[in-house]
Structure prediction request, 107 residues.
Amino acid sequence: AYPVLDNGRVVGTLTFSALSRVMPGQWSTTRVRAVMNPAWTQVDPDSTLQDALRLLMAHEKHLLVIVSPAGALQGILSQTDILAALNAAGDRDETRTEETTPEPELG
Prediction:
């Protein structure tokens, strides 16, 4: 999904599946507004990754639109992005644990 902007403000999202429902002969006359999803899930730039993942799961979405308090697009965040970041953080934690765990003495 991709955010749709009107004068710098997010007004919806557009997905590949929505585009695929438009017949090729209708592309020159179909407006984006007609196929976009006007109900999107947004998150504040200062939200935590955990909060963002909860939003995605609660709304059964794969993408969050990051919108400033003034309504300006700040970016997009996918479920895959969040899970990759959490996985990377977990890998770093495991590495630190391995580095600080003393080896057992043999004998």
